[in-house]
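anyone seen this seq b4? input:
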Amino acid sequence: MQWTLVVPLKALARAKSRLADTVGDGVRPGLALAFAQDTVAAALACPAVRDVVVVTDDARAGRELTALGAAVVADEPGGGLNTALTHAAAAVRAARPESALAALNADLPALRPVELARVLEAAAQFPRAFLADAAGIGTTLLTAAPGRELRPAFGADSRALHSASGAVELRLAAVESVRQDVDTGDDLRAALALGLGPRTAAVAERLLIAGQ
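predicted toks r here
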């Protein structure tokens, strides 16, 4: 099964505010963009991924992610994360009604294509499925088989919400890079231990040099 991945990305100026204790205001937009670039590049390198659609109203992010090979859909409803995902999923399905869809977080800077392929292969066995984040509270990936609605419920306690919605939780070993999203300084250090993508690694190196 080939998947279309939908990746939501808020305006870079407002992204990753919980990293304020680790990263300065002037650096956070560039770091959030690096997260998204490494996430999208790794997703596009996954053999199970047909294409990636980024939903964002950020012009800079749109340009940079288009250059990597992603398509960009404007966040026309402007109603938050789940509304953006529903809008983008509808746009994909309007063009290809039988597409298999997956919503993927934009902040997975250690994402490995082989691990993403393993998760998508497991998800293909179910009408809807999801993968919990490393903290065990949120969700990093939600899938919908052809003909099924995505029904995203990202945000606080999304693991419980997606489970309650009938999506099957994928319990897989050795897919840490697909679970490790980055919201805090501790998350960033955990992703660093897994091995960051090149763009995030370059920003992280500058941060380390500046902190010496």
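Residues 3-211 form a domain with the Spore Coat Polysaccharide Biosynthesis Protein SpsA; Chain A fold (CATH 3.90.550.10). The two ends are 48 Å apart (CA to CA). kinda curious what u guys think
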